[in-house]
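Annex B. Sample input.
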Amino acid sequence: MPPDTPDRDPVTSQSLSRLLLISALLLVAALAWALYDEFFGLRPWKNYQRDFVGKYSAFLKKEKPKQEAAERAIRATPEYQALQQQLDALQNSVQPQLRLLDEQAALVDERLAVITTKYTDAHARVTDMIWRVEHTSGGSRKAWQADLDDFEKGPFRYEAVSLNDGKTKAESVNYDHLEGEFKALQAKKGELLVRKGEILRPVSELRAKQDSYFQQHLNGLTSEQIQGLIDKTRTMSVGIKQINNPDAGVVDRCESCHLAIREPIQITAKDMGGERAFVSHPDPELLRIHDPDKFGCTPCHNGNGMQLDSVEQAHGEYEHWLAPLYHRADPKMASAGAYMEGGCQQCHASDMVVDHAPVLTAGKDLFQWRGCVGCHRFQHYDPEPEELVSAQQSLQQMAQQRVQDLAEVGKAIQAGDNAPDNEAARKFYAQANDLRLRVSKTDLATDQLKTRIKFLLMDRKKVGPDLKEVRAKLRPEWVPVWLTNPHAFRPTTRMPRFRLDEGELHAVSAFIWQSGIDAKVSTQPPGDPAKGKASFETRGCMACHAVGEGANAVGGWFGANLTRVGEKLNYDYLVRWIHNPRERTRPYCPVENRDLGPEDYAKHHLPFVFDLDHSKCPNDGSEMLVEQMTPMPSLRLTWEESRDIASYLMTLKQEDPKSYAPAPYLNDPKLKAEGEKVVRRYGCAGCHEIAGMESEGRIGTELTVEGSKPLEQLDFALYVRQAKDEGWWTHKGFFEHKLARPEMYDDGLVK
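Annex B, continued. Sample output.
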């Protein structure tokens, strides 16, 4: 039987060269890719820096001849030439005096150099001997004193130039004379320098004037300064540029790519071949205020300052980074760069005016003036409502605590009276004293809190007018006309259009009218419209109020536009308002949540008087709202002046109020309840003072951190796909569309 045949060995029976070749090629390719990624893929900033050096150097070399030509042109101007001639003449006139002073100074320096050497050695020896005299005693002290006296006698010999004739002479002096000569020469040298400075002062002032003229007429750096920048580019090394401020928690590497940010010359993208990363900072003054080494870049601009792998990651424009870079607006827009100013808000949220951020400042102003605070809370804006609620809650808690503490005082005293021994009684009495002390502290805190509440009530201002006195203030038939479309009556009004259907319109009108208090105002005789017009134009009314719409408007914008005020107001009420806009018909008690009348005061046998000096509630002693929540001040007008101005304002009409359709449904009690629901739903009490709704809060979303929300939490509603397709699936896009058409995201929804 033949021996067993071994299995076929693939190593010896076939070639592996093809497999090894493929593996080797793959390894070489992997190595090449790794090297490329190491030097180019993972470190794009290196290419940025090399590219920047070339483009920046070329830009500077192009700018230098321009600046040299500009400098020559400035020096050739008659004004500069005149200054140069004056400077040359002045320098020539002082040259003889300067030469004389220089000669004297040279003699002093030469003599002082010799004496300084001799005096320095002698002074060191004398100082040493004095120390030994002061720190020895007995015979040694006398010996050292004798040596000191003998040394000071000298003689000290030297050869020095004479200040009188300039000849070198040998001199021999004692120590006191040597020291006096040394000090005199120093004083002489200082005197010569002062005299030289006085002679050169007119020259220096004229040269400074010439330099100032040169700098004022030269746009940009001098050619010498540009040459210095060119020299700097030759030694610029490639490396990560990092700002590290551990105190602020900032680590930014933005300047590894944005290399021109701190350059002293203005650089645009066009100058750098279209590369926007190489532009200089548009506001150098801002960098002087906010030193990048201290503040970094990302606290103002957002983005991921530590990333260098790609532009998208460095700018924070990827899924998991919640603070993407603030981008510029469309350069064609008047507010180009405005979105960058959003970073200022992170530190300057409480500042109404932010230097170097005009668009942000205008936005803050618009947020306040447009009445956004009526529906939306924003930190640092109109905080009084929330602070008032918090203070009132604290006041109630302290009142409850006071009652409990007083009850505990009684229990402790009773327990002490019934104690079995004196030691136990003393403990109970001590506990009662501690509780009394706490009650006293509570009373003090209560008084302070009541004062705080009083000022909060005074500081509260509503965006819209008070609707409690609507029955005395307005013509009833005007109310539904206004609610139908406020912008049709007054295009510049801050009040939005609520798109009410007819039923809602009637219900809201009825609720507002019926919820108004029964305010009575005194009947006023007519005034003189001509005098009123003159007073209106001269007493400061037009600083806040305008007459006319659009391009025809004349006056301020802070207050209401008064163009058609004569169509809506009651004359008697208008007179009272002009005379004292802070006057209320009834005070409002926040504790009882209602307006008080004469009957409430009569219960306590008090006159119906309320003002800032009589602001306590007659029922419970709490602080009341005793003034209208309006920013309008009292102009201290007489009743006659008030009637004249009111008579003039009543002439401002476009239509006869009698042409308005009557509104009998305003007094329909069935509509009031339905109207109240609509008013609550739309949050009207956020802007207006409405009876029964004084404690209503804001109905809108708090906007303090709205811009920090992840994009997915913003409700694009049915516009998600369109926003992504059209490129406005961003925070900026969401807010812009929301502000342009607030009801936009309700499209297609059933609510």
